[in-house]
Amino acid sequence: xxxxxxxxxxxxxxxxxxxxxxxxxxxxxxxxxxxxxxxxxxxxxxxxxxxxxxxxxxxxxxxxxxxxxxxxxxxxxxxxxxxxxxxxxxxxxxxxxxxxxx
Length: 102
Fold this sequence. Notes:
The chain is mainly alpha-helical. The protein is built from four helices and no strands.
């Protein structure tokens, strides 16, 4: 009985640790998947690195994500919008880490 309890406890702790470590990066990973599945079909990544890019600050980047997710009727949750923002920011823009105000 004691051995079975230890095995259960070990499994529970391992699961918690794995889910915590996976959730730390899952937001940006989900943002990348959302972007690749819904956005990249209309423009290449070069739109984010050109000199005349539209987003010059975090609020503008957030605004473009909101606009196009609305145009495409994606109905993304607040978390999904934030994840796409984080993906684009980490990959291309390098704005300060704080997510812009809504």
